[in-house]
Design goal:
The structure is a single chain. The chain is α+β, with helices and mostly antiparallel strands. The longest helix has 23 residues, at 365-387. Pfam families: SACS.
């Protein structure tokens, strides 16, 4: 305490004390000190009123110790020891002993301590003295009635009670020789250590012991930061006889380093490392210290500091957790105040304090002046902290921004400092921006922006893979350093006003850095997903997003448009390029991918060969493959299809799209080869091949591409048709003659086509044909108007035979030209077939009789040979006459035509119910005409006029107009059929065609009324019961015409269903053409069945399947309706193999009831109890047999036919997809074992397949990448899921093979853990990091560890 050394002559310490007692306090003198009472009251007032808390006596003692002088070479220390021994013999239960290794009390110090307000440090602020009140030591009276002092030979004590010798307390010194003695002190301090020069002994008041103990234990460890001398402070407590010694607090400055002086701002910086031990807990913290001087402004000067010309402001920035906790003092005046600022740094200055030392004086100009300088000091300190170390890694900078005072202070004056700091920091180039080179760039906060976290991932991967990103900040704003742009710093960035990049920046960056072209597929997928996630959904109307690029393979080099999707365009060369969404959507370009991975390369090759017809652009092979396995594929696909108009092409869809735009000869041949190889490789079914062939563009013999055709003819060269017809006679009828190119061999898209292979394919699938397989049009052809050679005649007959055998009706014009053409050689020259006769030996000579009057053209059988007789049916079809009767009929017709009385045939003289008619227009009524009368009014002969006897002249009516006497009865009878055609029609067969015509007219003009329908059915029943002949043509019309009114409009009987009770349950599941007024027609169900109407469910199963219309709400489907639907499938499969396409499409809904709810058939299982040892019914979506009953087993094959998995061995994927529905551990383990038994592996191994049971909660599904099987080091429990804690060994192998779960943490996991520890920055973990580093070096020797460890070690250990 020798701040002012000096003696009182040569007096010894004891004599000096006696002199003070005598001279100042009049002890030992006769008179009394007149000021004794005033002195006592002054000391009492100051000691009790100026300090509000017991702790302040400690602060005053520490302040005194800081102001003391210390010998050179000594580390100043201050030690407090609380003992339960009463070493002062005052009856105290506890005694506080303070040891200080200063130079010791001088005489002046003793003089000062015996006074009030006479400090030896007054006026010495500039020398570093921090005390000033002159009563610092007196504060001990708050806790002790008799403080004792040992120092430099002085052994004195004071008493708060007035001395009986002078009636003054507190400041009257009293010498003592024992209680305590120096040996007592040495025993407490430790017999092996030399006693410090100064020792203060405070026997504590009984009421103050808890408060003293509490305040000693809560001493602020940071109080050493701003003391320039004291380097160690300790507080201990010992029991009786020095037992149970316990260190409550021990704080020391272990190092002071990196001292730098900055002359431009009159500042210095250094780092202090504090070691503290409190209540057995060791703590360490390094503080970055900034000390800066500011001149005292005149307007802020005060009398108490009139000798001070400079403010010295020190700021302390803790690296890591502060030793004093979150609510430690924020303002120090060399020693801590009670002010909590909410700032992450500490402010130290020579503040003027309130008497209590709890706070600074807020209204003091001196303090306001200091606080006004704090923002400048902070900015200078912060800039030096962030920018000084040029080689500091980027990740070391963001933690320093935690020193910004982002939280408001509860003290308005202090918060104004915070706001001033914020204002200044916004003008500083202090924010680290992202730089992809060695040059660090610092910007103002307003010049940088944050990036979306997804885009950071993209840039990070791109940079690691070597993509040049040096121009990243040339698109508007600078980018915030990636280490800074995390959620951890959200509050800091908000304080700095640093927001996110506007969305227009991203496409500029993508284009400017050429990311679409440069990044590999893995990163490209992330880029697509980023575009998809942030398209117009969140930011509608943003024009920049529409400029995202597609990756394309263009035939014209790199596309200069703007967009992010690669496509595969190909002409005769392949160049990587891009196409933008605007170009795709506005210019009609078609972005495409293949539906199946096996088709990707194949379709791209053909698209190249076809020169990208219809502006079809395929994504490149690698891109499509990457997209198939991309975990966010659904999002990207939805975006591409919705906004990029991307199409998913099957082989058939691609072929259909291309066929309509091929208009060049070469490309048409290429396309034909494409379809040929599509068929040859079996990529699509025969039905789809037929569809593509039907629309295939054809190259004709002139080299033109023809898209419209009725028939395709094989090339003329080597064909039969050219010999028969000479040239293509039906070109105008769209009959196309193929080019000879189809016979040639060639290589297309690396696929070889042998010679004639394509021609055979075209014949089989396009229908290219030669005679006799050509289907002729309804047109004539010229060559049959002239004589044909024998070979061509037989070829023509072969042609006709082939058409007939195929059930083809010969077109009328074609047939007429053959019939009427003079090409058949006869006995009287070349004649038309219809005028020619093929005679036999039996009756051939008889025709010579008639030939006297008529020339008879007999076919020249000698010319054609015997083979002609094998074409009898064909000759008969084209009109050749074979029978004698036919020949006689011909002769008779010829003769009759000469003698017929035309007036009898044509005149209307016969009276009918509709007026007079000619015989050929009248009908003779009979019961057979009942049905016809229901359809139309017919001119029946008026039997009321002629009487019933008219029916006896039926034959006469037929022959009425003939002269029987002239021709003779025999001749008349022989030509009765011809005669009937001249007379009255009396049989139903003769007028059936008339009736059917009337019926058709009635149906086409309007629907038949219900009563007429019932009458018609009644007539039909009566004729069937009488076994009478129902008019054939009318019956045919009734079967074929649409005259029955159904729920779906007018239908033919074969397309109608008669509703009855059998249809009740199924009617709600399908749209079926039920006949209206079915109840009225129920009595005619036999007649309706005969006409083709479906009556039973078995007959109408096809209507149900084709009209399937399952309800939206599957719960409305009853058991009966479901079983009847399965029954319909069963009926259909009895006669046909494939289910209708309409049914296959309509059945793909969630309608099957399973134990896990309603599912689509292909997502359902038919549980088999034979697997019950492996899996239970409820483990997957098994058919609910409790609902469907045992009868459902009968329809196992039908369920299989619609997609239900009936063999559990093949249901692994379905069971696995429903894993996440379960939360019971036993169920999940059983399912895992089931999947393991059948060696199942997922297609997507990145899904959250792993169930981790929880302790307090049910558990969670986690990703395999976040799991390991074992953790032998026991370091990763907080970072990874360790599966051997939850599952048996046999399942661990399954997790490894099925989900690629790692056996142990890999190097990447260790590095992440390393970085986590580094981030925590707790020195007590250094040994663990060192251990880990050693293991990593020993096990891996990775370049990362070798290069990273030395620098990190230096940073932590220095």
């Amino acid at each position: 305490m020798s701040s002012s050394k000096g003696g009182s002559g040569e007096l010894s310490p004891r004599d000096h004390v006696e002199k003070i007692r005598r001279d100042r306090f009049f002890i030992g003198r006769e008179e009394k000190n007149p000021l004794a009472e005033d002195m006592h009251q002054a000391v009492n007032y100051l000691s009790e009123e100026l300090y509000s808390k017991d702790v302040h006596f400690l602060m005053e003692l520490i302040q005194n110790a800081e102001d003391n002088q210390y010998p050179s070479g000594v580390a100043p220390s201050l030690e407090f020891v609380l003992t339960s021994e009463d070493i002062t013999a005052t009856g105290a239960n506890s005694t506080l002993v303070i040891f200080n290794n200063e130079e010791g009390f001088s005489a002046a110090n003793v003089e000062s301590i015996c006074r009030v307000g006479k400090s030896t440090k007054k006026g010495q602020r500039y020398r570093g003295c921090i005390g000033e009140k002159g009563i610092g030591f007196k504060s001990v009276f708050l806790v002790s009635s008799q403080p004792h002092i040992f120092s430099n030979g002085y052994q004195i004590r004071f008493n708060e009670e007035p001395s009986p010798e002078c009636d003054i307390g507190y400041i009257v010194p009293e010498w003592f020789d024992e209680h305590p003695t120096l040996s007592d002190l040495k025993k407490i301090y430790g017999s092996t250590n030399a006693l410090p020069t100064t020792t203060i002994v405070l026997p504590l008041k009984a009421t103050k012991i808890p408060a003293v103990r509490k305040q000693l234990s809560s001493m602020h460890p940071e109080l050493l930061l701003f003391l320039s001398k004291i380097r160690k402070l300790s507080i201990k407590e010992i029991g009786d006889n020095n037992t149970k010694q316990k260190a409550l607090t021990e704080v020391s400055i272990s190092s002071e380093k990196d001292y730098q002086t900055r002359k431009n701002v009159d500042a210095e910086s250094y780092a202090l490392h504090l070691d503290a031990e409190q209540a057995g807990n060791e703590e360490q913290c390094t503080y970055y210290m900034w000390k800066q001087k500011f001149p005292v402004k005149s307007e802020y000067r005060v009398k108490k500091r009139e000798e001070v010309d400079q403010w010295t402001i020190t700021l302390a920035f803790p690296h890591g957790q502060r030793l004093s906790g979150a609510h430690a003092p924020g303002i120090y005046a060399f020693l801590p105040t009670e002010m909590v600022t909410n700032f992450p740094f500490i402010i130290q200055a020579d503040f003027l304090l309130a008497s209590s030392r709890e706070t600074i004086l807020f209204d003091s100009p001196w303090n306001k002046g200091i606080l006004e300088c704090v923002p400048s000091a902070f900015i200078n300190a912060f800039a030096a902290l962030v920018k000084t170390t040029s080689d500091a890694p980027a990740f070391s900078l963001p933690p320093k921004f935690k020193f910004l005072p982002i939280h408001a202070s509860p003290l308005q004056l202090i918060d104004s400092v915070r706001l001033s700091i914020k204002k200044k920091i916004l003008e500083e180039h202090i924010i680290p921006s992202q730089s992809y080179n060695k040059q660090k760039i610092f910007c103002k906060p307003g010049e940088v922006r944050r990036l979306n976290s997804q885009f950071w991932d993209i840039l990070d991967k791109a940079q690691k893979l070597g993509v040049d990103l040096q121009s990243i900040s040339s698109h508007g704003h600078y980018i915030l350093c990636s280490c800074f742009d995390t959620k951890e710093y959200d509050d800091v960035l908000e304080f700095l006003g640093i927001g996110y990049m506007d969305w227009g920046w991203y496409p500029k960056c993508i284009k400017g850095c050429d990311l679409v072209k440069e990044v590999p597929e893995e990163v490209y997928m992330m880029l697509l997903h980023f575009a998809a996630e942030h398209w117009l959904l969140c930011y509608p109307g943003t024009p920049y997003l529409q400029e995202y690029r597609y990756r394309v393979l263009t035939g014209y080099g790199y596309d200069s448009g703007t967009a992010p999707v690669r496509t595969g365009y190909a002409t005769w060369r392949t160049v990587s390029g891009t196409a933008c969404i605007n170009r795709v959507t506005q210019r009609g370009l078609r972005l495409c991918i293949a539906s199946d991975e096996s088709l990707i390369s194949w379709l791209i090759s053909w698209n190249r060969e076809l020169a990208c017809p219809s502006d079809i652009f395929f994504m490149p092979l690698d891109t499509q493959r990457s997209l198939k396995g991309f975990c966010k594929r659904a999002t990207v696909m939805d975006w591409l299809q919705r906004y990029g108009k991307m199409e998913v092409f099957t082989a058939y869809k691609y072929g259909s799209a291309v066929s309509g735009v091929v208009n060049e000869r070469r490309l048409a041949i290429v396309y034909a080869n494409f379809v040929f190889h599509l068929w040859q490789k079996g990529y699509i079914s025969e039905g789809y091949i037929k569809g593509l062939c039907a629309s295939m563009p054809i190259v004709d013999n002139y080299g033109s591409v023809v898209t419209r055709r009725s028939q395709v003819l094989v090339p003329a060269k080597g064909s039969k048709w050219v010999g028969l017809m000479g040239s293509n006679p039906w070109r105008s009828e769209n009959y196309v003659e193929l080019s000879g190119d189809y016979r040639k061999s060639g290589s297309f898209a690396s696929n070889y086509t042998p010679q004639n292979a394509l021609m055979i394919f075209i014949q089989n699938n396009v229908g290219a044909a030669d005679v006799p397989y050509i289907l002729p049009p309804n047109a004539s052809f010229l060559t049959v108007t002239s004589p044909l050679t024998k070979e061509n005649t037989l070829l023509l007959l072969d042609w006709i035979r082939n058409l007939r055998s195929g059930g083809v009706a010969l077109p009328s014009k074609f047939l007429d030209s053959v019939k009427s053409g003079s090409w058949l050689k006869t006995s009287i020259g070349y004649k038309p077939p219809k005028d020619s006769f093929l005679s036999t030996e039996t009756w051939g000579s008889l025709l010579q009789i008639g030939s006297d009057m008529v020339d008879i053209p007999m076919i020249d059988q000698e010319f054609y040979g015997k083979v002609l007789s094998t074409y009898k049916n064909e000759l008969q079809l084209i009109g050749v006459i074979f029978e004698f009767g036919q020949a006689s009929e011909m002769i008779g017709k010829h003769l009759m035509s000469r003698a017929a009385n035309e007036a009898v045939k044509k005149d209307g003289w016969l009276k009918t119910c509709l007026g007079n008619r000619s015989p050929s227009e009248a009908f003779l009524f009979s019961s057979e005409w009942t049905a016809a009368s229901c359809i139309a009014n017919l001119p029946f002969i008026d039997d009321k006029y002629y009487g019933q006897s008219i029916f006896g002249y039926k034959l006469e009516l037929e022959l009425l107009v003939l002269d029987v006497q002239f021709y003779g009865s025999v001749v008349i009878r022989s030509y009765s059929e011809e005669l009937r055609k001249l007379g009255v029609a009396v049989q139903s067969k003769q007028v059936s065609k008339v009736m059917s015509l009337k019926f058709k007219q009635l149906v086409s003009s309007s629907s038949i009324a219900k009563d007429k329908v019932l009458l018609l059915l009644k007539s039909y029943r009566q004729l069937r019961q009488k076994q009478s002949m129902f008019p054939a043509d009318l019956l045919s019309c009734m079967k074929d015409e649409k005259w029955l009114q159904t729920k779906m409009g007018l239908r033919a009987p074969v397309d109608s269903v008669l509703f009855n009770s059998d249809w009740d349950s199924i009617s709600s599941l399908a749209i079926v053409p039920f006949i209206e007024y079915s109840s009225d027609m129920e009595e005619y169900k036999d007649e309706l069945r005969a006409l083709g109407v479906a009556i039973t469910l078995k007959q109408g199963a096809g209507f149900v399947l084709k009209g399937i219309n399952l309800p939206t709400d599957p719960t409305t489907m009853t058991l009966n309706s479901s079983l009847h639907l399965l029954k319909c499938i069963k009926y259909w499969k009895e006669n046909k193999t494939d289910l209708p396409k309409e049914f296959r499409d309509g059945i793909r809904k969630k309608w099957l009831r399973t134990v896990l709810g309603y599912r689509c058939p292909d997502e359902s299982l038919f549980y088999d109890s034979k697997h019950s040892s492996l899996i239970h019914r409820g483990d997957g979506p098994s058919i609910d047999e409790e609902f469907y009953g045992s009868e459902v087993v009968l329809y196992k094959e039908q369920l299989k036919g619609i997609g239900v998995t009936v063999d559990m061995r093949y249901g692994c994927s379905i069971v696995a997809r429903h894993l996440i529905c379960h939360s019971e551990r036993s169920t999940i383990v059983r399912i895992y074992k089931f999947l393991k038994a059948f060696e199942w592996e997922p297609e997507n191994k990145t899904f959250s397949w792993i169930w981790v049971p929880g302790e307090d909660v049910a558990g969670e599904w986690v990703f395999p990448e976040n799991c390991v099987l074992h953790d032998n080091s026991n370091l990763f429990a907080s970072e990874l899921h360790i599966l051997d804690k939850f599952y048996e060994e046999d399942l661990l192998g399954f997790f490894s093979t099925a989900f690629n779960v790692k056996d142990e943490p890999d190097i990447e996991n260790y590095v992440k853990l390393w970085k986590l520890w580094e981030k925590i920055q707790l020195p007590r973990f250094l040994w663990r990091i060192a251990w880990l580093s050693g293991n990593l070096l020993e096990c891996t020797g990775t370049l990362f560890v070798r290069s990273y460890w030395p620098s990190m070690s230096r940073n932590y250990l220095s």
